Amino acid sequence: MANIASDDNSVGGNTFTMNADFTNSGSGYLRLGNGNFDTYSVNVTLKNTGSRHIYIAYNGSDHSVARDFNTSNSGTGTSGINIDSGNTSTYPLMVI
Fold it and tell me: How far apart are CA 33 and CA 36, in angstroms?
């Protein structure tokens, strides 16, 4: 969970083996997987209540989610949840 006042950018390369719950309630964005692929062998939940975005599988290919993938956006302003929005790859995120 994060109350992000400034932007937070992860370059990726992470492997998640326990449920991954990401909440952004601040005025900055949360960007996951910007370049290197992330592997989620667990359930993933993205919840945005802030005024900016959550990005997952932002850039690069072969990001994967092996279980449930849930999103919820109730933020203000231009907030949202974006999947592979910075991506030019053929297979940016696989939900298997």
Answer: 6
pTM of the prediction? 0.87
DSSP string, 42-96: S-EEEEE-SSSEEEES-BSS-EEE-S-EEEEE--STT-EEEESTT---S-SEEE-
The answer to whether 29 and 8 are in contact (CB under 8 A) is yes
Q: Are strands 44-48 and 53-56 parallel, antiparallel or unpaired?
A: unpaired
Q: How far apart are CA 4 and CA 33, in angstroms?
A: 17
Q: What is the mean pLDDT of residues 29-50?
A: 93
Higher pLDDT, 29 or 84: 29
For the chain, domain boundaries: 8-95
Half-sphere exposure of 88 (CA within 13 A, CB side): 0
